[in-house]
Write a structure and sequence with these properties.
The complex is a heterotrimer of chains A (187), B (1001) and C (91). Chain B has 1001 residues and is an alpha+beta fold. Chain C is built from one helix and six strands. Chain C has a four-stranded antiparallel β-sheet with strand order 3-4-5-6, with no helix packed on it. In chain C, strands 1-2 form a two-stranded antiparallel sheet. Classes of the chains: A alpha+beta (187), B alpha+beta (1001), C mainly beta (91).
C-alpha cells in the first residue's frame, strides 16, 4: 500500500567516475561488548564481526563494517523487497541480542542512503572534500572509515579497487549527492 | 614593440608566438612566455603605478612575487577583475587587459601627485594626528580618507570563475623548485617517499637554469646545463608530483599547509572557459623541506624609488630569462658580488654597463676580476647620494663614503643612465618557516636571520637557510637531507663544484646622502611610502617595539608585507636605538605569503553549497504544494502553506483554525530520535531527565525535560517505552546531535558501568503528526485494524501497527493540545504515508500546517519551545514546570544546581503569559517589559519570547519571561515601543483548555 | 589543525574531533552532600593553563568515542593520548 521512494532518483556517469544509489538495502546497527555478543552474532549470520579497526568482513549475504570497538554496521549485499520491511534477520538478531541484553540491534535501513562510486577518479573526488588520508586506505580492499565529506558525516566502505560505498544519513543525501556531482563535473 | 629592447638568447620565450595585450588602454605586443612586467619593459614602459601616499611614479622593481610597486588591476569585467596583482607574476595572454592602480586620471598625469609636493607635511602618523579632532568632523574626514585609501578596485559583481579545493597527503613536501628543491625532491622520491614539489613560478629551476656564467660549474658542466639535466630526470619519477604556478600561502602546525594552484590565469579567455581557475591545496606532509630561496635586498638611499631603479638580479633575469633589456645604459650599485654577475652577463650580451658603484673598499673575487677585465668602471667606497628623473631615472649623483659609512666626502660625480640595478645582499625567505612557529637566529657575518629551531618535522635548505654560494648550498643541503630523510647513501655525493668566492662584505642599512636626512627620501617600504625618515621620527616620538614602529609608520603593511624593505627597517631601528638586531627580533610574518583571492579561499562553498541542507522524506510534497520553507538548524522545514496568495498571517490563521476544528497534519520528521537499549535503560533515563522513568509502563509515552549540570533547561521531548529495556527518545529538531553527544559523553565517561546503547534513528523514520477532533477517524481509515478506543489506545501511549505490509509506530501524543497521533514509518515510505494521510483526511478537510502554526498552537497551550522561550538561563522552576521535577530521585543531571543560592532566588526571570489591553494588538517578540514608566532609564523586567494572534481565542496572546513574574499574576505592565506604549496584563501561560478536555475529544 | 591519533581509529584530521575541556574532573557521586561552593567548584572552575594540560576529546565524526589527551597549549604539541578510564600519567 505504501510506495517506496528513495531520496536519490538519478544515477550519473562522468569520465572515470560513475555515481549511483543502491536501494533498498537492509542495514542494521549492531552494538555489544561481550564475547557472547560476538559469538551469538557469528552463529546467527554465519559471519565473524571484524574486530580490527577500520575493516569489514563479508559473507555471501551480508557485509559488516567496524564502526567502533562496540559498534558495527551490517548491510545486506543484495537488494531487498520494496513491498515489505519485515527483515527476518533483523528480527532474529533483535531477539537473540537485544531481548537477551547481550547488546543492541537497531534497524537503520533508511537512516543511511548508500551511494556507490566507481571508477579511477573515486579518490580524486573524495580528496576534494575529505581531509582523510586515503594513501593506505585505497591500497587495501574492505577498509572502512567514518569521516566527513564536505562537512557531512559519511561511512566509506572500500568494496574493491576503485569502488567504494558511501553511507550518508538520508536527510543529508540530496545535498551530498548534488555536491558529489558538482565535484565530479570538475575532476 | 621596440625590438631593440630584446636580446635573442632566451630559451624561455617563444618569439614565434606574438601575444597582444592592453595596458592602461593602450595596445602592446609581447611574446609567449613573457610576464606583464617583462613585456612592458620590452616596450620601454617602466612607469606602471603610483605610490600609495605621495603618488610618486613607480616602476617595475623585481621579477617575482616580492614586487612592491608594479601592482596592477587585471581584467575590466565587473565580475572578474582582480586588484593588487603583481605585474611580475602575470603571464600575458591574448586579450589580457591590465591597468595601473592608485592614480587618477592616469598614471602619467596623476592629480594625487600633489601629495609628493606636500610630503614634508605628510610624515608618519600624519593621519592619526590630524584627523583626531574635532571628533564631530570625523564623518567628513572619513569620506575623503576612504576615497583616497586603498589600492585597486574590488569586483562589483559576483565572481563567475570557478574554484576548487583539494586535500593532498604526502610523505615529503618540497617548497620551491630551485636547485636545492630539485635535488631534495629527487632524493626523496628515489627513496620511496611520496613527494610533492611546489613552485610558484611557471618553470622549475630557480635562477640556476638561466645562469650563463662559466664560473659556476657542477661536475665540469655549467650549472644551468647540469640542472636542466636533473630536471629532465625528476620528471620521470613516479613518486614525485610537480606543481608549478603554485604558491604556498600558509604553513600551519602539524605540517598542514595551504597552497594556491593557479590553473588558468595564464590562459586566454577562450582557453580558460569552463575550467577551474585556482585550486586551494590543503596539504598534510609527514615531512616538509623548505627551499624557498632568498630575496635580493635593495639599498636604502635618497630617491631610491624612481622607475628604472631595479634589483640587480631582476635586471639579470629580464635579460637572461626573458631576453629583455631594462636599460640601454646601465649602472649597478652594490655592497656584494651579485651585481657583478648581472653586469658581466649584460656586458656579454652587448648591453652597455657604464659603471659599478660599490660601497665596499674592494673585493678580490673572480667576478670582480672579470668585470674589471671587461673594462667596466668600478667606483669603490662610493655611494649614490641622489637620483634624477621624474618618470624614469636619467641621472645619478655619487660621492665617496666616509670610513665609518655614516657620511660622504669629496666632490659629487654625476653620471647619466636609464637603469640602476641595486643589490644590498640577500635575505633568506624565512616567511613560511616562521609562520609554522619556527624561531630565527641572527647571523652577524652577513646580517641575515636564518632558521634556528624547527617546530615540526621540517628543514630549510639552500639560500633560505642562509647558504648562498653554490658549494655551500649543495654540500649543506646533502648533509641535512641525509639526516632528515634518514637515508644512508645519498645521490650527488662527491659532486665537483666550482663557484666564485665572495671575500669582502660591508652592510650599511641607511646610506648617507650629502643632504640632511630631513631633506631626503630614502624609501624603505615602497608600497606604503615609508621612508627611513619616518622610522627615525617614530623612534624620536618614543616608539620602541618593532611591532609598534611597523604600525605607526605602516612599514611592511602593504600587500607585499614588506618583503624587500623589512630588514632595512629593522636595521635602521637597531642602528638608531643601539639595540642589537638579534635582540630586536622581527615583525610577525602572517599568511598568506602572497595575497589570495576570496574565490580560492571559498572554493566550491558558495551558492547551494554555502551551507549544508537537510530534507525530510516529505520534502517534495511540500515543494509541490507551494509551501514556504524556513531553516531550522540545517533542516529545510515547511513553514506555512499559502493558498491563493495568502500572507503568512492569513495562512497561519487558517491552518490553526483547521487543526482545532477538524484536522491538521504536520511533518515532524525532523525531531531527533534516539533508540535506547540495554538493561540499564530505565536507570539511564532517570539520571538524564528531571522526572522518574522506572515505573513507565511498556507501550507508554512520557514527556521529559533535560537539564545541563547548571540546572538550566537543555532539551525536551517525548520518550516511549517500547519494551522492558527498549526506549525511543525524541529530542528537539535543533538539539538532536548535541543531545546524543551529551548522552554518549555521560555514558562513556561518568557512568561506564551502565549497560545502555544509544543509536540515532532520526533519519530512519518519517513522522506525520495528525491532530484535531477528526484525527481519530482519519487514522481509523488508514489503519482500520488498529483499535483506537481510549481504553486500548489512550493518550500518551504507543502501538505498533502495519500500513499494508509496512511496519509503523504510532504514538498518541500531542504538542497542540488536540487529540493527535504521530505516525512513524521507515523514511523511504514517508512521502507515500503523507499522501495516504491527505487522502484519508480529504473528507475532513485535513489541512497541512507548518512550523509557524505549530508554534501558535502550542503557545495557546502554554507549551514551551526550548531555545525560543528558554535561552540557557531558565530552570524548570523558572518555567513554572515544578511538576516535572522529581523530588524523590536522589540525583539527575542538574539537580544539585536547582537549589544553589542563585537558582532559588525569587526574582529570577520566570515564564508567564501576557494579554494585551487591546486584544487585537500583537506584541513583538523580543519587546522589553517595564513596570515603572516614570523612572528613566526604564528598568527592564523581562521580554516577550513568543507572540501570536490566536484565531481560536480571537485575541492576541504572548509568552514572556519576567523578573519575579510568578508572583505577579494579574499585574499590569507596560511595553514601551517607538512612539507609544502597550499595556499588558500578566496571566497564566496556559491560554486554552487548561483541563485538557480536547486531548480526548 | 592537528592530526589526532584516535586510540581506536588511528590518525585523523582535527576536523573529525570535538574538544571537551579539562580532563579528570569527576562528577561528584553524591551531589546533594556538597555545599554550594563545593558544587560550584565542580561546575565552573577549570584550569586553562598555558603549558601542559589534560584534556578530553571526542572523535565525534568517527567512532564517537571519548578519550584523554595531554597537550601543551603553548605550542599545540600532543604529548600523549590515552583511553577514558585509564589513569593520567604521573607528572
Amino acid at each position: 500500500m505504501l510506495n517506496y521512494k528513495s531520496s536519490i532518483i538519478e544515477n550519473k556517469k562522468y569520465s572515470g567516475l560513475s555515481i549511483k544509489e543502491i536501494s533498498p538495502v537492509m542495514k542494521l546497527n549492531l552494538r555489544g561488548k561481550s564475547r557472547d555478543f560476538l559469538s551469538t552474532i557469528g552463529k546467527n549470520i554465519n559471519m565473524i564481526l571484524p574486530i580490527e579497526a577500520n575493516t569489514s568482513s563479508s559473507s555471501d549475504k551480508y557485509t559488516s563494517m567496524w564502526l567502533s570497538p562496540d559498534e558495527w554496521l551490517m548491510v545486506s549485499n543484495n537488494i531487498i523487497d520494496k513491498e515489505n520491511n519485515n527483515y527476518e534477520i533483523g528480527d532474529l538478531l533483535f531477539n537473540k541480542i537485544s531481548k537477551t541484553n547481550l547488546g543492541a540491534v537497531t534497524d537503520v535501513s533508511d537512516q543511511f542512503v548508500l551511494i556507490n562510486l566507481e571508477g579511477e577518479k573515486v579518490f580524486d573526488l573524495l580528496s576534494s572534500g575529505c581531509p582523510m588520508n586515503f594513501n593506505k586506505f585505497k591500497e587495501k580492499e574492505g577498509t572502512v572509515a567514518q569521516t566527513l565529506l564536505s562537512q557531512v558525516d559519511i561511512i566509506i566502505h572500500h568494496k574493491k579497487h576503485n569502488n567504494v560505498n558511501l553511507f550518508v544519513r538520508r536527510s543529508f543525501s540530496e545535498h551530498l549527492f548534488s555536491w558529489i556531482n558538482d565535484a565530479a563535473s570538475r575532476l | 614593440m621596440s625590438n631593440n629592447l630584446r636580446v635573442k638568447s632566451s630559451n624561455y620565450i617563444d618569439e614565434t608566438t606574438i601575444v597582444s595585450f592592453k595596458f592602461n588602454g593602450k595596445n602592446y605586443h609581447g611574446y609567449k612566455g613573457d610576464t606583464l612586467a617583462s613585456a612592458l619593459l620590452a616596450n620601454n614602459v617602466h612607469l606602471v603605478g603610483r605610490s600609495f601616499k605621495y603618488h610618486r611614479p613607480r616602476g617595475i622593481m623585481t621579477s617575482g612575487s616580492e614586487e612592491p610597486n608594479a601592482i596592477v588591476q587585471v581584467g575590466n569585467n565587473a565580475a572578474i577583475t582582480e586588484p593588487n596583482v603583481r605585474a611580475t607574476e602575470v603571464e600575458i595572454y591574448d586579450g589580457l587587459e591590465a591597468t595601473s592602480q592608485n592614480c587618477w586620471p592616469s598614471v602619467n598625469f596623476d592629480i594625487g601627485g600633489i601629495n609628493n609636493l606636500l610630503s614634508p607635511f605628510l610624515p608618519a602618523g600624519f593621519y592619526y594626528k590630524t584627523f583626531m579632532w574635532p571628533a564631530s568632523f570625523w564623518k567628513k574626514y572619513e569620506y575623503f580618507i576612504r576615497h583616497s585609501a586603498g589600492l585597486g578596485k574590488s569586483p562589483t559583481k559576483p565572481d563567475t570563475d570557478i574554484y576548487d579545493h583539494k586535500y593532498i597527503h604526502c610523505d615529503v613536501l618540497v617548497i620551491g623548485a630551485g636547485i636545492s628543491g630539485i635535488m631534495a625532491a629527487k632524493i626523496a622520491a628515489k627513496n620511496n617517499l611520496k613527494t610533492l614539489l611546489l613552485e610558484e613560478k611557471t618553470q622549475i629551476g630557480g635562477s640556476t637554469i638561466y645562469q650563463n656564467s662559466e664560473k659556476f660549474k657542477i661536475d665540469n658542466k655549467n650549472s644551468s646545463e647540469w640542472l636542466i639535466n636533473e630536471i629532465n630526470e625528476i620528471k620521470k619519477l613516479d613518486n614525485l608530483q610537480i606543481k608549478t604556478r603554485t604558491s604556498v600561502a600558509a604553513y600551519h602546525g602539524y605540517n598542514y599547509l595551504l597552497a594556491r594552484e593557479n590553473l588558468t590565469d595564464h590562459l586566454s579567455p577562450s582557453e580558460k572557459k569552463g575550467k577551474i581557475r585556482q585550486r586551494l591545496l590543503k596539504i598534510r606532509a609527514k615531512k616538509v623541506i623548505v627551499a624557498t630561496g632568498s630575496l635580493e635586498r635593495p639599498l636604502i638611499f635618497n630617491n631610491n624609488d624612481r622607475p628604472g631603479i631595479m634589483l640587480s638580479s631582476a635586471v639579470k633575469k629580464y635579460a637572461d630569462h626573458y631576453g629583455v633589456i631594462c636599460g640601454k645604459n646601465n649602472i649597478f650599485f652594490t655592497n656584494n658580488d651579485s651585481a657583478y654577475e648581472s653586469a658581466i652577463s649584460l656586458h656579454k650580451k652587448g648591453i652597455k654597463v657604464q659603471a659599478i658603484i660599490d660601497i665596499r673598499e674592494n673585493s678580490k673575487s673572480s667576478l670582480v676580476e672579470e668585470a674589471t677585465n671587461l673594462g667596466i668602471k668600478i667606483y669603490w667606497s662610493h655611494t649614490v647620494v641622489d637620483t634624477v628623473g621624474y618618470k624614469k631615472i636619467n641621472k645619478i649623483s655619487l660621492k665617496k663614503l666616509s670610513n665609518d659609512g655614516q657620511s660622504t666626502t669629496g666632490s659629487k660625480i654625476n653620471i647619466s643612465c636609464d637603469c640602476l640595478g641595486v643589490s644590498g645582499g640577500w635575505t633568506p625567505a624565512v616567511h613560511l618557516f616562521t609562520q609554522s612557529g619556527g624561531k630565527l637566529k641572527f647571523r652577524d657575518k652577513d646580517q641575515v636571520f636564518i632558521p634556528n629551531k624547527y617546530p615540526s618535522k621540517q628543514i630549510s635548505i639552500g639560500s633560505c637557510n642562509g647558504d648562498f654560494s653554490l658549494n655551500d648550498i649543495i654540500k649543506n643541503c646533502l648533509n641535512s637531507l641525509k639526516k632528515f630523510l634518514e637515508i644512508e647513501n645519498i645521490e650527488y655525493e662527491n659532486l665537483d663544484i666550482i663557484n666564485p668566492i665572495e671575500t669582502e662584505k660591508r652592510n650599511i642599512w641607511l646610506l648617507p646622502s650629502d643632504k640632511v636626512i630631513g631633506k631626503t627620501k630614502p624609501f624603505v617600504d615602497y608600497q606604503n611610502d615609508a621612508t627611513a625618515k619616518d622610522i627615525k621620527l617614530a623612534l624620536r616620538e618614543g616608539f620602541r617595539s618593532i611591532e609598534h614602529v611597523k604600525r605607526y609608520t605602516t612599514t611592511g603593511m602593504g600587500t607585499d608585507q614588506g618583503k624587500l624593505g623589512n630588514m632595512h627597517a629593522l636595521g635602521i631601528v637597531a642602528d638608531t636605538t643601539g639595540v642589537k638586531m638579534s635582540e630586536l627580533g622581527t615583525t610577525t610574518f602572517r599568511p598568506p605569503y602572497t595575497p589570495l583571492t576570496f574565490g580560492t579561499i571559498v572554493g566550491r562553498n558558495v551558492g547551494e553549497y554555502f551551507d549544508i541542507f537537510r530534507k525530510t522524506p516529505m520534502n517534495n510534497w511540500h515543494l509541490n504544494n507551494k509551501a514556504e520553507f524556513e531553516n531550522v538548524g540545517q533542516w529545510k522545514r515547511a513553514w506555512y502553506y499559502p493558498v491563493n496568495n495568502e500572507t503568512i498571517y492569513e495562512a497561519v490563521q487558517r491552518e490553526s483554525l483547521a487543526a482545532r476544528e477538524s484536522a491538521g497534519i504536520l511533518d515532524a520528521s525532523t525531531l531527533g530520535k534516539i533508540d535506547i537499549q540495554g538493561s540499564d535503560a530505565s536507570e539511564f533515563l532517570n539520571r538524564v531527565y528531571t522526572n522518574a522513568w522506572s515505573k513507565l509502563g511498556i507501550g507508554k509515552c512520557r514527556y521529559g525535560l533535560m537539564l545541563n549540570e547548571d540546572g538550566m533547561v537543555y532539551d525536551d521531548g517525548v520518550t516511549t517505552r517500547l519494551s522492558e529495556n527498549h526506549y525511543i527518545m525524541t529530542t528537539t529538531t535543533g538539539g538532536a546531535a548535541n543531545v546524543l553527544g551529551k548522552l554518549e559523553d555521560y555514558l562513556q565517561t561518568e557512568w561506564p558501568e551502565l549497560d545502555v546503547y544509544l543509536t540515532s534513528v532520526t533519519d530512519h523514520f518519517a513522522t506525520a503528526s495528525i491532530c484535531g477532533p477528526n484525527s481519530k477517524k482519519i487514522l481509523n481509515k488508514l489503519i482500520p485494524e488498529l483499535d483506537l478506543s481510549d481504553e486500548n489506545f489512550p493518550h500518551m501511549s504507543f502501538k505498533e501497527a502495519r500500513i499494508g505490509k509496512i511496519k509503523c509506530r504510532v504514538m498518541r501524543i500531542s504538542f497542540t493540545g488536540e487529540h493527535s497521533y504521530e505516525i512513524n514509518v521507515q523514511a523511504n515510505y514517508g512521502e507515500s504515508l503523507w499522501e495516504h494521510c491527505m487522502e484519508a483526511g480529504k473528507e475532513f478537510n485535513i489541512t497541512p500546517y507548518g512550523t509557524e502554526t505549530m508554534h501558535l498552537l502550542r503557545a495557546e497551550k502554554g507549551f514551551i519551545i526550548v531555545g525560543q522561550d528558554t535561552d540557557g538561563t531558565m530552570t524548570p522552576i523558572d518555567l513554572q514546570m515544578d511538576w516535572i521535577v522529581s523530588k524523590k530521585k536522589y540525583d539527575f543531571i542538574g539537580k544539585r544546581s536547582l537549589y544553589r543560592s542563585d537558582t532559588i532566588r525569587e526574582d529570577r526571570k520566570q515564564l508567564v503569559g501576557l494579554l494585551t489591553e487591546n486584544p487585537k494588538e500583537i506584541l513583538e517578540e523580543g519587546a522589553q517589559i517595564v513596570s515603572d514608566l516614570s523612572k528613566k532609564p526604564f528598568e527592564m523586567l523581562g521580554h516577550v519570547t513568543s507572540s501570536y494572534f490566536s484565531p481560536n481565542l480571537k485575541k492576541s496572546i504572548a509568552l514572556a519571561v519576567v523578573r519575579g513574574g510568578k508572583k505577579m499574576m494579574g499585574k499590569k505592565l507596560f511595553i514601551p515601543m517607538e512612539g507609544r506604549t502597550i499595556n499588558v496584563t500578566i496571566v497564566d501561560p496556559i491560554f486554552l483548555d487548561k483541563e485538557n478536555k480536547r486531548l480526548n475529544a | 589543525m592537528f592530526i589526532i591519533n584516535c586510540p581506536f581509529c588511528g590518525e585523523r584530521d582535527q576536523s573529525e574531533f570535538k574538544a571537551g575541556g579539562e580532563a579528570h574532573i569527576e562528577r561528584p557521586k553524591q551531589p546533594t552532600e556538597l555545599s554550594d561552593d563545593e558544587w560550584a567548584e565542580y561546575l565552573f572552575m577549570r584550569k586553562n593553563i598555558k603549558g601542559v594540560q589534560f584534556e578530553r576529546w571526542n572523535h565525534a565524526h568517527g567512532c564517537r568515542k571519548w578519550f584523554n589527551m595531554v597537550r601543551d597549549t603553548s605550542n599545540d604539541e600532543i604529548k600523549l593520548i590515552y583511553k577514558m578510564g585509564e589513569n593520567p600519567p604521573i607528572e
